[in-house]
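U., I forgot to send this yesterday:
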Amino acid sequence: MNHNTTGSDPDTLQGLSSVCGDDARVLILGSFPSVLSIEGAMYYGNPHNQFWRIMGDLFSIDTSLPYPERIEQIKGYKIALWDVIRSCSRPGSADSRIRNPVFNDIAGFLATHPGITLVALNGSTAARYFRQACRIPGADTIVLPSTSPAHARASYEEKREKWMIIKEST
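Result:
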């Protein structure tokens, strides 16, 4: 399936648009959406990704709700979602296979959302690309354990404990 929406390279995948309310205080940045997320046009659309389970535990969000309702709840908790990479070439979903990344304008996004005081990077790959993409004054940045099913080094409980900073920052 070809997900190319711009450009001439048929192997270029396009990421998702940002999700953000007017009063966002925390921006959670992933690296780039999985194939399942792109196909479903949903952040953390892989059912094995632990993001929604963690958000459910932290904010009492019913993870069985339809995606648009979960997004509205996330925004209600002053959380914005986006990815560091806007487009790239990548066979499959593995971050290690990302090639030719084009970055989102994160500095511009933060300039238009001055209430954001914490940028939370979902995993070390998001952090590595974030460091390449921009230098952001004014917002604290933290690297959290990836919620991806590929990141099995930390237990769910360990991840949830580290992710508590999101709740503390909203």
